[in-house]
Specification:
By secondary structure, the protein is α/β, with parallel strands linked by helices. The protein has two domains: 240 residues, Type I PLP-dependent aspartate aminotransferase-like (Major domain) (Aspartate Aminotransferase, domain 2), CATH 3.40.640; 68 residues, Alpha-Beta Complex (Aspartate Aminotransferase, domain 1), CATH 3.90.1150. The strands form four sheets. It has a seven-stranded mixed sheet with strand order 4-12-11-10-7-5-6, sandwiched between helices. The protein has a four-stranded mixed sheet with strand order 1-2-3-15. β1 and β2 form a beta hairpin. The longest helix is centred in the last third of the chain and has 24 residues. The chain is globular. The structure holds pyridoxal-5'-phosphate. The site of pyridoxal-5'-phosphate has 15 residues, from α5.
């Protein structure tokens, strides 16, 4: 019943799985028939603390009783406190709040152009991004997203963007010209198939940006807030950006996006940018609850350890099942490149057996479970996946 109503009234923008989820707790969700699923999707790397985590639930409940929204015409202490938490735990000097990843990237794009145009007489507006990237669906973020399949039928896109090969410093070097103001990258490409930037590449990118006075923007919308076993993925390489965008996990399921900048990139002044809902007391209350839990060293160490366990399970499975071509990723952001063209039947079969996983680019399985997942739950999920491989003759 719910699904047929959906088809009638909800716009046809997603090819959804034929289940309706009605409840969640920890790493599990249930559909309307009471069937239980182990959730290795976590709302696409969003539910960092799992479903109905007491800290998240409590932060929402206590805040809705006090104040939900006031606009940004006035100060609200939750926004100030969350900005402080994020800046103190990162390279950040200040933060701007919005409501999604795409919005955070739009803000970063505007900021980069202001930086280049004001410093160089309107001549520096070009932003370089990487092929296979994903930065969101609004026009700036969509143009930055260098994957033709997302652009088709939506031209003309924004002017002043160029894409280069990821992990190829010469490709970047030759794209920089007198109009370039910024380089925008994911530290690990998420939607593009869980592709990690090499440390050496990031170091060279940083150097090129410094030599040419370009802002280095890291889109940590997916990698940020503990996903890779560090609070921010840039910490693995030690290469610090000038600008960072965050969203997905920060709200623990509640929509929030953030633009974080260092001193040099702190160029917005009143009137430059804004958001009606951005950084409202409720979103920031949840953000603080998530940060308080995830930013603990012991929490992050467990993510790292469990991520390694997860990968070792997959590598062991690779020995037995040749369908696994490559195991990629860091922490609990893991990809499995399959040795077949199309993996959607594997995802479907796993779902029938009570495991939710996600497919990228037709043949990369993505595992982004809640960060609170245990080794037992990882092993349980891997058993289901192995059963699927066996039954399908892989
Ligand atoms: C999901 C994602 C976005 C877009 O975020 P939305 O909240 O869907 O707008 C941008 N960048 C990266 C790296 C993402 O993974």
């Amino acid at each position: 019943m719910i699904i047929s109503e959906d088809k009638k009234y909800v716009m046809n923008t997603y090819s959804r799985f034929p289940i309706t989820l009605v409840q969640g707790k920890g790493t599990k969700v249930w559909d309307e028939n009471g069937k239980e699923y182990l959730d290795f999707v976590a709302g696409i790397a969003v539910n960092a603390l799992g479903h109905s985590h007491p800290a998240v639930v409590e932060s929402v409940k206590s805040q809705v009783d006090k104040l939900i929204h006031i606009s940004n015409l006035y100060w609200n202490s939750n926004q100030i406190q969350l900005a402080k938490m994020i800046c103190e735990k990162s390279f950040g000097k200040s933060a701007f709040f919005c409501n999604s990843g795409a919005e955070a990237n739009e803000a970063a794009i505007k900021l980069a152009r202001k930086y280049g145009n004001t410093k160089y007489n309107g001549r520096r507006y070009k932003i370089i991004t990487a092929k296979n990237s994903f930065h969101g669906r609004t026009y700036g973020a969509l143009t930055a997203t260098a994957q033709p399949k997302y652009h088709k039928n939506f031209e003309p896109l924004l002017e002043g963007f160029e894409s280069v090969e990821y992990n190829d410093i010469n490709s970047l070097k030759s794209a920089i010209d007198e109009n370039t103001c910024a380089v925008m990258l994911e530290v690990i490409q998420g939607e593009g198939g869980i592709n990690e930037a090499k440390d050496e590449y990031l170091q060279q990118v940083r150097k090129l940006c410094d030599e040419n006075d370009l802002l280095l923007i890291f889109d940590e919308v997916q990698t940020g807030i503990g996903r890779t076993g560090k609070l921010f993925a840039y910490e693995h390489s030690g290469v610090v950006p000038d600008v960072m965008t965050l969203a997905k996990a920060l709200g623990g399921g509640f929509p929030i996006g953030v633009l974080v900048v260092n001193e040099k990139a702190d160029v917005f002044t009143p009137g430059d940018h804004g958001s009606t809902f951005g950084g409202n007391p409720l979103a920031c209350a949840v953000g603080m609850a998530v940060m308080k839990n995830v930013a603990q060293e012991s929490f992050l160490n467990t993510v790292k350890e469990n991520g390694e366990f997860f990968k070792s399970q997959l590598l062991a499975m690779k020995e037995k099942h040749s369908i696994i071509d490559k195991v990629k990723g860091k922490g609990l952001m893991i990809g499995v490149k399959l040795d077949i063209e199309e993996g959607s039947d594997i995802v479907k079969k796993a779902m029938e057996k009570g495991l939710l996983i996600n497919l990228l680019s037709h043949n990369v399985l993505r595992f982004v479970p809640p960060l609170i997942i245990t080794k037992e739950e990882i092993a349980k999920g891997m058993n289901i996946l192995e059963e699927v491989f066996v039954e399908m003759g892989y």
